[in-house]
Write a structure and sequence with these properties.
seven-stranded mixed β-sheet, 5 helices, 10% helix
Amino acid sequence: AECDLKVTSSCTVQECATEYGMQCFDPGMCDEGTFRLVDGDIEQEGRVEVCYYGVWGAICDADWNEIDAYVLCRQLGYDGGLAPVAYNESRFQDGIYPIVWSLIDCQGWEKNIMDCTRKDYLRFSTCSRFNTAGVLCAEDCVDGDVRLVNGDKDSEGTVEVCYAGLWGLVDQGGWDDDDASVVCWQLGYSTADATAVYNSQYGRPNKTIHLVNVNCQGTEVRIEECTKTAISLIEGKTIYKNHSVAGVDCHPEPPTPPSCTTMSVPKSGSECDNGMIQLQNGGSNREGRLVYCHNGLWTPFCYLDERAATVACKQLGFNAYTWGAIITTGEFGSLQNYSLLQNISCSDTASETTLGDCDVYEADCLPLCPGTNIGLRCFDPGVCSDGTIRLADGLIEQEGRVEVCIDGVWGTVCDDGWDKTDAHVAC
């Protein structure tokens, strides 16, 4: 009643071609400024929705283009080298929520689409429900690459293959151990016990199927060298939408245990409380020879993996940043040339706060580690700015070991795959 009401001068009843309805929403259903993709056939695509004043809203496709889509996809974590696809005319339906943005104009440098110019709700002319914006985002992968997802360990899972800038799946039709062995070889695992896994045992991610009828001989080094049929995106996400997908268990060989001895040594005592750890013989409280109290005796480590190192740093109070550098050079000296522990195995670094929470294995044959008791170095964050790089320990300033700042701590880069192109970008 407080708005302007327009009436016709005629007293005749006007015919209404379309009766309009409306739906109202309460705020609080989402976090302000967050985005999501909805109603796509696969997780990399969908209608773009933004949380606006606590309510999900769609975006009008007026002026919506690849640059806008690029900024959005990058914000959602899709850093692919290929351009995304910007869709118009409600490609992914119109949804039930209001259209809250229109006339978005990104330049491409923005890290958040909120930084782009736009017109907000009630500040643009009416946008039809048939004109909502959508997108298909590209991922950061190289055609022919493979990976395993959803497994309990890195060496098993559903097979994903990269094609046209998207991670996708492999149909299980014809899938066998020869195909599995090629995937394992490509990923750097032994092929001796590679096993094909069927019926989407590790789960079926909401992604398109890229490959069907894969037929490897077992001698290929990459799955792209095998006989196969690559299908289109539209076929993969529609015709094959409900097909079971291939999985792999590579059965990696466990680390070679250290040599051992059956000599008679004390196996219990009272010099410490079980489960305690220390860093000994280091230059500060953040580094040294790692020892563990087992049955009341301090014992060094002959073997230590990254997960156990992470938990050890956490137990020592380095909670903000828990990665540990394992030192195998013997620079912190040797407590003794054997360990009372065969190994300590940690499986969930999020919940395990001490090495005592992990599985502790002992053996009658005590591991030998003369002169190479394992050392550990823990770190506090804040020594550098995330994403910066530097060259260290070179003879001249233009050369050196590449170090990158992650979570406020300097770290090195593994040389697997490192080549001139990577070096060029670093320089």
